[in-house]
Structures are given as structure tokens and as C-alpha cells.
Amino acid sequence: MRSIPTALKEKLANRFKVENIDSMANLRVVATQTSINSLLSEPIHEDIAPAFGDVAVRQTAGESDLSLAYAICLDDGIAKIYKRKFPAGLEYPWEYQWTLGTATDVAIEFNGVWKMNAEKEWYYLQTEEYPYVFYVRNGNLYVQVWRNNDNATLLATDVSQISACKGWQSSVEPDLDQGLIIGYLKNGSVYYRALCCQDNGSYVWEAEHEVSALGTGNTTLSVIRTNDFRIGFLAQNSGRMLLALTHRNYAGMSVRPETVHVNTSNVRMWISDMTELDTLSKEYASGNAAYPYVLLDAPDTEEISVSSVEKLNRETGFVCYGFKIHLTKPLNGSIDAGFPVKCTLSVSGVTVASASYNSEEQALVLYTSSDIRRTVAVTITMPEYRSLWYYKLGLQRWFLPALSAVAAAETMDYFTYENETAAISTISAGVWIDGAVFTECFQPAHTAVIAVVASSVSLQPVSTLPI
Fold first, then answer.
1. Is the pTM of this model over 0.85?
2. Is 46 inside any structural domain?
3. Which residues pair with 357 in a beta bridge?
4. In a domain, 204, yes or no
5. What is the CA radius of gyration of the chain?
6. For the segment 57-69, what is each residue's pLDDT rounded down to a tens digit?
7. What distance in Å separates the CA atoms of residue 114 and residue 187, rounded to the nearest whole number?
8. In what order do the strands lie in the sheet with 240-245?
């Protein structure tokens, strides 16, 4: 019998008993993919030991499925970007794209809106073309769009770890946006900031918020999105896993619901006797809004509108300090401090400081924050305001709709007295004659009679010449 060398025995033992001799490989999955019934992983590169990283997938408008995956990896402290095509498989390997630079933690995520796939009956994230890249350098958290490092934005300081996730955003009403969320650890506490769509359609990084429910002493953080579009902050704290979840928004599910479709035949259906109920005497309406309005009117019912605009002029100077907006119908209700804030003027730097209603003149009176020259045309825009209302049809009330009016520009006339004079100096003046006028003048013959009479001249000597 041939004996087995001791070295070979040790290798065999190490293969099956790595825990006993502390030879278990320390691995961390950088990129993962999910299938229907299993969790798979694949290497992005094998030349460097695995470290922290993040993955984001892309599906832009017009693409029927996922098209690209981007990964950011920390290779020996250097953040590098990789890309691969879908569908996943060995025929599309990961490709190195570019190097971001030194970093202690990184994250990558796409911004976009959630849209319904009617065929699959689930929501999918319709992404932008390029992802947002987050990285921590010297304790500072930065974000940039893809390679645009010239416009990198500082989001927070004293940051130790980060995690990014895209929240719910409606494709019908984009301003219903949880935002592109970046969570981070700072001195053991969990904070986050969100890139959200504003009322005017712009995207702004909103202020920092602390997840106070997770307390202090947290060592790791992962920002997650649940199946029903809630955002979760998962932290490790003193050997415990703590999870803080947002409230549900009831938008739906991000995976296909399980349904049963049945083909039926020879189905019988019975309908019970129908009872007609006269509900005209039982109609009612109720609501909890601050200013509810319910109106039944004819299609040609006259709406309230602006009949004229009058300027409130100063006695000195060609300026005005406000406007009277005369309306076609009288108003009721009250004006509070919120009304002038929402009124706007077309003159830059001038706002509506206060407002009142003159019932005798049937006019809204607006006072400006500073004087306006009367030679300037001013467009005045007033918002829809439910604290003010008018009788639209009979005794039926309707709120003040949004109105707009224009105060026309005026000209300044100068008058002088009749006896005023003006001195005019002309330099290099020229005269043009558009047409010559010839006048024929006739002078009849005249006769002159000259008479010479006798005359004498006497000379008075005055001196003697020295000749």
C-alpha cells in the first residue's frame, strides 16, 4: 500500500476543514443578479481582491428591457467604473470604463420615473441616460453626474459610509417625488439627502435630514426600496440590525402580481329583480376641505373678470404706489396675508406688499413694495384664491379664479408759457428746398425830374501852409 504524504493530507484537510485552521477565504460579492428562484453572483474582475462597490442598471425611454449595467468598485482604494450589456451572460463581459480617483466608499444609482408596464402589470424604472456617482474622499461626500467631475457637488462632511437608492416618483405627476436618496453615516448617526423634483420642474438637492429613530452608534448602513415602494434605512448597531421604513404611498407593486386567468364555458347568471329608487330627494355632498365649492350652472354663465385697472399715483413725481383692479362682479370673503404673497408683477424687484378689497368701488387694491414709474407697462397676475368668492349663478358661490390684468404705460407731457424763449445754436446747418417758386413781378416805367438851381460855395481859410 502506498502511503499518502503528510503535506497532501494537510491539503485535503484544508479543503474540507478550513474553519478549523482559519483558512476560510474572506470574500465579498461586488455584483449580484437575481433570477426567478435563485440568487446568482458573478465576478467583475479577478486581478484585485474584492472590496466595496455598487451596481446600477439602465432602461431608458424606448427600451423594452434592461440594456446596461454600471458598477463602481474600490480597487485598492481607487474608484473605477465598469459596464456590461444585457442580457446577462458570458457573451457580455464587464468592461472597464474610466477611473474616478481615490475614495473610501462609493455608490452609483440612476434617477428616473416609475412607469407602468401594462403587459407585465408592474412598474419599472425609466432611467436617465447616465447614472449619478457618489463617493467619499477625505471624509467629504460628493456627487456628480457620470464623468462630469467639474461640477461635483459637496453634499456632506465627516462621512464614513454611504448607500444610494431611487425612491418612488410618479410619471404622471413628477413633483410627487421621494427623490434619488443618498444615505450616509456621520459620527455614528444616519442622515440622508434627496434629489427631488420641485413645483417648477427643476431638480434640487434638498436639505439634510437625520433618521433619528436609528439613534447613534451605527457602524454600517444600507438604503433599500421595498416591493411596495417604501424606503428603508438598514443599520448595524451593537450587534443588532435596525430597520427604519417610510410610510406606504399605495402606488402599487414593483413586481408582477400573481393572478389567475380562467377560461369558462356554459356559465349561467341570474339577476335578481331590480328595484328603482328615487334618489333625487336623498342627494347630498360633504367634504373636509377648508373652502369647498360645489356649483351647478349653465354653460354660458358669466365668469368674473377684470373690467379696468387704475393706478394709485403719487402727487409728486411721475410714479405710482399701487393699483386698483376693478372687477365685473362684487367679491365676498376676506383677504389674509397669503393673498399678496402669491400676487406677481412683471416689474423686476417689485412685489405686492399688501392688499385689500374696496366694496364700494368693487375693486381689489394692491399696494407695491416700492414705487413704479408710470411710463412702464405692468402685468399684474393674481392667483386662484378660495378665501374670496362671488355669486356666479343665483345664490351659488364660486371662488375667485386666477386673473391677469395689464396697467398700460403712460406718456409724460411737458407744457410751457407763450412768452418763453429758447436759444438755439446750429452747427453745420444745411437748407434743403424741395421745390422752387417763381413769382413774376411787373414794375411800370417811372420818370424822374431833376432841377438844378444856382448855388454858391464860400471857403473859410483856416491856416497858412508852410510851403
1. no
2. yes
3. 364
4. yes
5. 44
6. 999 998 888 899 9
7. 34
8. 218-225, 231-237, 240-245
